[in-house]
Amino acid sequence: MDALIHDFSFGLVFWQLIILLIVIFLLGKFAWKPIVNALEEREKGITDALASAEKAKLEMARLTNENENLLKQAREERDVILKEAKQLKDKIIAEAKDAAQTEGGKLIEQAKREIEDQKLKALAEVKNQVSTLSLDIARKVLTKEFEDQGKQEALVADLMKDVKLN
Predict the structure, then answer these.
(1) How large is the average pLDDT for residues 87-102?
(2) For the chain, how far is it from start to end, CA to CA, in angstroms?
């Protein structure tokens, strides 16, 4: 320590102090203002970023709430649409059943009429065939009966007894 005190020079301290002041002045004039400005800008940027993040957080909360409301409305609309579709399906099925029953009834009635018509035609045809057969049989019987002249005269006499003249 004694060596430091003996080598102490006021001139050296003076010039070092002047150089320090010049360096501080130059740093203050050219370096500190830009550094301080950069720090202030960075602080402002961080503050703005935090504010933007907060705004984004609030916007996300709002959008989430809005999405939930939209989903709720969509579910309600879906339920309404499904209910209406089920009612429409039931109505269409009921109308189709009614139409089928009506059409079936008409077809059954038409079939009954056709069966009755066919039955009447068949009966008429059978009657025609029976009458034709009866006439053929009667013709054959009468032809056999009237071959003999005596039988013819007996038949005419018998018929004349039945007929009364008024």
Answers:
(1) 92
(2) 194
